[in-house]
Amino acid sequence: MKAILQRVLSASVTVDKEVVSSIGKGLLVFAAVAPGDTEKEAESLASKVLKMKLWDDEAGARWKKNVQDINGEVLCVSQFTLLAKTSKGNKPDFHGAMGGEEANGLYHHFFEKVQEGYMTDRVKNGKFQAMMEVALVNDGPVTLELVAGPKEGPNTKPNRT
């Protein structure tokens, strides 16, 4: 599994002109499921999301607090395009992303583990397989890539564009 974490002051997801989720200060998490990923990867990624230290402490020391420490919120958004292969031609190849119901189930397992690891009401979700409008006010900006899974393989090697 792969995720892009963005530290935000606010973020929201709109589907069909209706806001389905919104958060204040916290994390926007774009997450993608690859073929071969299991619940183990989903759980590992959920733990990393919640433990990543992205905020300063009260004394100004950098990178000391995680989203739970600041009582922030988390907005998870499924985004299979994170696993696109872009090394050949100008059209992205999405064969590196798991499809259908299997991806839906594993993504939702990830989302539920983020909720269980924190507080259910502080963790929001986009809408799986929907055309979403994602709005955010990036804080910093701070943007990180997280990967949970095998150390080597087609879905964990960096894209060369």
From TrEMBL:
Enzyme class: hydrolase
Presence of the UniProt keyword tRNA-binding in the record: yes
Pfam families: Tyr_Deacylase
A GO term, aspect molecular function: Gly-tRNA(Ala) deacylase activity
Classification via InterPro entries: Daa-tRNA_deacyls_DTD, DTD-like_sf
Main location: cytoplasm
The protein's Enzyme Commission number: 3.1.1.96
Alphabetized UniProt keyword annotations: Cytoplasm, Hydrolase, RNA-binding, tRNA-binding
Entry's localization field: Cytoplasm
PANTHER family cross-referenced by the UniProt entry: D-AMINOACYL-TRNA DEACYLASE 1, D-TYROSYL-TRNA TYR DEACYLASE
Name assigned to this protein: D-aminoacyl-tRNA deacylase
Organism: Sodiomyces alkalinus (strain CBS 110278 / VKM F-3762 / F11) (Alkaliphilic filamentous fungus)
Taxon lineage: Eukaryota, Fungi, Dikarya, Ascomycota, Pezizomycotina
